Amino acid sequence: SGRSFPECPDGSGVKTCTRDMDPVAFNTYTEFFTHAHSICHYLQSEQWQRRAENTIHRLTESSAGVAEQLASTQRMAEDLVEAQSAALKSQETILRNGEELKSTLQHSTKGLRDVFTEMRHSVQEQQVAFAEIFNRVAFLQSFIMSESHTLSSLLYNALGFCASFLLTSTRRTSAARLFLFGLVALNVYLERLICRTVLEDGSPGYQQMERLAFLVGLLRKAMVTIACVVLLYFATRFRNVNKESLEILRELKETQCNLKQTLRKAERLSGSLNDWTKPRKRHWEEKRDHEEESSLVILHPSQAVQDTLSTFSSLHRSQKCESFVPPLEAPSTSEIPKRRPRRSSGSRVRHSSAVVYSVIVEESQNQ
Fold first, then answer.
1. Where is this region: Disordered (predicted)?
2. How far apart are CA 145 and CA 208, in angstroms?
């Protein structure tokens, strides 16, 4: 119809929703509300009518039953009248024995009261005894649970100690032994703490067992995972010190062999130099008298003298370096022959100077 629909947010009242309505919308709303209310009232009346019909039907059925019961009651009343007449006769006998029964009933009532009192006391004592029994059974159950868990925990942790020892018996994983033993000890402490906490709870026995098994299983899985991580860490970070030492020793042996070869070469060179200087020394002694007579000797450098001096200086430096090399391994008498006793540095210098001088003099005489 093109009319605007009034807005009515959730939780607002009827007064708020109908405040801004125009008269046509408000009349429509009022008619619809009255019509809906009439329909509800009609439905309620129909339901009440059906319930009333059902109630009347049940009342009719019950009235028929009551009529039958009244008929049977009438027959029973007639029988009762006949029985009452017989009862009157018997009541006369009962009245005669009433006094005796009265005294007997009094004694019986007193006895029953005493019996009930004793039964009440005995029932209270039995309740206390049953409560004590139940407490002991609960304590026994908790004790058995604690002991069974203790035995299983000891067995599991003993196996954990053995497994840790076996896994760390190799050199690669031996550094992780203390950490694994510490994890096993921590697992023992945490399992005892969990067991004590669960048993102190007031839950039923089966719930305590399930909760204890779940928490202990979770703790053991976590500890096993941590132990595997620690073991893998130490296994991957392992360094074989002996192997590295052997490699270093092998390198040192190779260096020692090279030094020995260098020493042998130096000894051979020193021996050849001594063999070369011996005839020069004899020649120099023969010419010494002639040199003393000469008043002036012309000395001039030559290529042979310079070559000899450079060779001697290099040999002298190599011998000095060899004198500072520390011994790496004590050589045996079978491997190294007996060396000649070395001369002092002063004698080597004097001998070398004499050799050079003789070479220079010989060269000057030849010229």
1. 323-352
2. 9
For the whole model, what pTM was predicted?
0.35
Separation between Cα atoms, residue 98 and residue 302, nearest integer Å? 176
Q: How far is CA 248 from CA 48, 239, 243, 253, in A?
A: 110, 14, 9, 9
Phi, psi of 134 (to 5 degrees): -65, -40
* Helices and strands, counts by H and E, the chain: 7, 0
Chain-centre distance of CA 340, in angstroms?
71
Write 223-227 long-range contacts (CB < 8 A, 24+): 223/183, 223/184, 223/186, 223/187, 226/183, 227/164, 227/180, 227/183
- Listed as own residue / partner, the contacts of 204-210 with beta carbons closer than 8 Å and 24 or more positions apart are 205/138, 205/141, 205/145, 208/145, 209/145
CA 39 centroid distance within chain: 72
Per-residue pLDDT of the chain in tens (367 residues, 90 and over written 9) = 566 666 777 777 777 777 777 787 788 888 888 898 899 999 999 999 999 989 998 888 888 888 888 888 888 888 878 887 887 888 778 777 777 877 888 888 888 888 888 888 888 888 888 878 877 776 677 777 777 777 888 888 888 888 888 888 887 788 888 888 888 889 888 888 887 887 777 666 667 777 878 888 898 889 889 989 988 888 888 776 677 778 888 888 888 888 888 888 888 887 777 767 766 666 676 676 566 555 434 334 444 444 544 554 554 444 444 444 343 333 333 333 334 444 444 444 344 444 444 444 444 444 4
Nearest alpha carbon to residue 357 among 271, 317, 297: 297
- Pull the structure tokens for residue 59: 């009342």
Q: Of the candidates 193, 204, 185, which has an alpha carbon nearest to the alpha carbon of residue 142? A: 204
What is the per-residue burial (b if ≥16 Cβ within 10 Å, else e) of 310-324? eebeebeebbeeeee
Torsion angle of alpha carbons 236, 242, 247, 248, nearest 10°?
A: 120
Instruction: Round to the nearest angstrom and report the end-to-end CA distance of the chain.
Output: 148
| Torsions phi, psi for 260 (to 5 deg) | -60, -45
Query: Sign of dihedral through CA atoms 94, 95, 100, 103?
Result: positive
